Prior knowledge:
By secondary structure, the chain is of the alpha/beta class. It has a single domain (10-288), classed as Alpha-Beta Complex (Spore Coat Polysaccharide Biosynthesis Protein SpsA, Chain A), CATH 3.90.550.10. The chain is built from 11 helices and 13 strands. It has helices at 41-51, 66-71, 76-84, 90-93, 113-118, 121-124, 144-155, 215-222, 233-238, 261-273, 279-288, and strands at 10-14, 35-36, 39-40, 56-61, 102-106, 129-132, 136-139, 158-164, 174-182, 185-193, 204-212, 246-249, 254-257. The N and C termini lie far apart (58 Å). The structure holds uridine 5'-triphosphate (UTP).
Amino acid sequence: MTDSFKPLRKAVFPVAGLGTRLLPATKTMPKEMLTVIDRPLIQYAVDEAREAGIEQLVFVTGRGKSSLVDYFDVSFELESTMRKKGKSLEALELSRADFGELISVRQQQPLGLGHAVWCARHVVGDEPFAVLLPDDLMAGTPGALAQMVEAYNRVGGNIVCAEEVAREKTGSYGIVTPGATNGNLTEVRGMVEKPAPDVAPSRLGVIGRYILQPEVMSVLDQQEPGAGGEIQLTDAMAKLIGQQPFHAVKVDAVRHDCGDKTGYVLATLALALERDDLAPTVREFLASR
Ligand code: UTP
């Protein structure tokens, strides 16, 4: 097995951002703890990673983000009280990490997504790893990362999840210069962070799921700040193009950008409409409006 096909066991969750678009909600609560129906965003991302075969979860946290790690702990008092009252513990079981499954590292200053990923370098070591941004809630079966792993097992190397974005929105995404397309896979020839619509090389925008080779960490060692003065993951990934296989994959899933108010509301509605216990009431309310 060549290095670029090593199995994927680790996933990095950068959760140290400030979440300024959702203030004041995110003043004291991490954005990734915001709840869609009955689970925080981080739970959806962790479920998706576990389904894709990930064995080690690496959270890159910052100040005020400890509740994300606590959430996956065993809540002894709560469990013992519920047991005494004869209540089911089923809902709590999902949110428990196994011994050693979850590791957290700190990003002491929010210097950008590339910097957050780099903070996980010692835990990642020399293995390929996934990156999941929990504020992109991906609704799909199988999950988005599982679909990416399926692509990874075919082509190896580096894979970003991508979707066509509106021309006027290119300035909010990393945009791909596309090469040959084969089914849902497009060869990546170049990548640029947040280009203005008139200079964007395409409308193929990178969204919050990645499978990366460990060499990106050595590039990040040297990475200077880019767009917005932040250390950009896109700039570091772009330097691997030509040295390692690099593809963008379109997955069969709906992305909800929960880092944005509208996206967050729509995610709640969309997921509620999928649930038998909630859909009739929600549908009735929407129809009445
Ligand atoms: P965003 O671009 O959504 O930034 O980050 P943000 O700070 O969280 O939110 P706004 O724009 O101020 O509202 C995308 C992902 O990268 C993480 C965030 O936590 C989020 O999961 N991130 C970003 C970090 O972990 N560290 C950083 O320095 C920047």
